[in-house]
Amino acid sequence: MQIDLRLIEAFALVMRNGSLTRAEEVSGISKATLSRQIMSLEQTLGATLMTRRARGVVPTEPGRVFFAHCEEMLADLAGRIETARVQMQELDSGVTGTLNILADSVFSTAFVCHVTRLFRERYPNVECRMDIAWGGNLPDVSDMDCYVCAEPPDLPNVVAKLLGRISHGLYASPAYLQRRGIPVTPLDISRHDSIILGESQGASEKTMLHSDRHSQPYVPKCSVATNDYWVMKSFCLDGTGIALLPDFFARPEVTRRTLVPVLPNWKPERTRIYCAYQQQRYKTRKLKDFVDLMTTSVRHMDSYNQYVGFPSVLRTS
Asked: For domain 168-262, which CATH number applies: 3.40.1790.10, 3.40.190.10, 2.160.10.10, 3.30.250.10?
């Protein structure tokens, strides 16, 4: 099956903006053209992708599934086009050596691995090594070219470049919510089991949840505490409790309905993601280009995470 890329781009544009009117304002493409392109795509796929309503469009179940693949495909295509452009310009650059990367675990597979793959496509003669920073202790960055993290180290001659901001949300498994009920307000969280990042006491004292008009403190009742987001998500999938997770990190499980957003209209402040590096190392071309690639790629982070967790299954003999 051959599908015109313009049809996919039109569908993704309308989905991202929520309506044909807003998509027209953003892109300059008329609503009539966008509507015809989406109808043509639906005919090609043999499925209705969205329902048109007075206040916008609502994706159907096939539309949500197809949109997830569209975002991944378009982001990958944009990265490959940029890679091709750089490769043509850098055929004789001779960039070689090793690039040592340190990353917080939550950004490793979901973001840094993807960027590293794109970087290696540009510079096949550069060997990349990625290590994971575990726990809350200050990592040793002396032998690293860069450190991708939420809290950069406060050290002399270390520059922390802000890459972007990521949103978090509360999540739980359908089994847990069926067993314990669905929280209606942030105050209900204190009556539920929670999986906490950091120490069990005081880890979330300063976290506030915000809606459009109100703010409430996030006061979880700790059932499990850990220093790793992957462990948090595993406990969450197994129905241990409610967890405050990065939205991009939970997206694959939400798509497959193994995790469910809890209080989706209540969010904490966005968390910053940094790339920290020693000032003198930034003079090398390979590090400059790697940091620039991360800066460009971070806006598409939601589409990079393809590592899906599933709840464990208890087997008895």
From this structure: 3.40.190.10
Per the CB < 8 A criterion, the answer to whether 236 and 243 are in contact is: yes
Residues 222-251: tens digit of each pLDDT: 999 998 889 999 999 999 999 999 998 999
- Range(s) within the chain of domains with CATH label 1.10.10.10: 5-84
Tokens of 42: 């639906």
pTM of the model: 0.64
The gap from C-alpha 200 to its chain's centroid, in whole angstroms, comes to 26
Instruction: Name the CATH superfamily for 94-166+271-303.
Output: Periplasmic binding protein-like II (3.40.190.10)
Residue 44 near residue 3, CB atoms below 8 Å: yes
Q: Residues 6 or more apart from 38 whose CB is under 8 A from it?
A: 7, 10, 11, 14, 49, 50
Look at 12 and 76; give whichever has higher pLDDT: 12
Strands 221-226, 193-197: pairing kind: parallel
Distance CA 151, CA 213 (A): 29
| Model confidence pLDDT, tens digit, residues 29-50 | 998 999 999 999 999 999 999 9
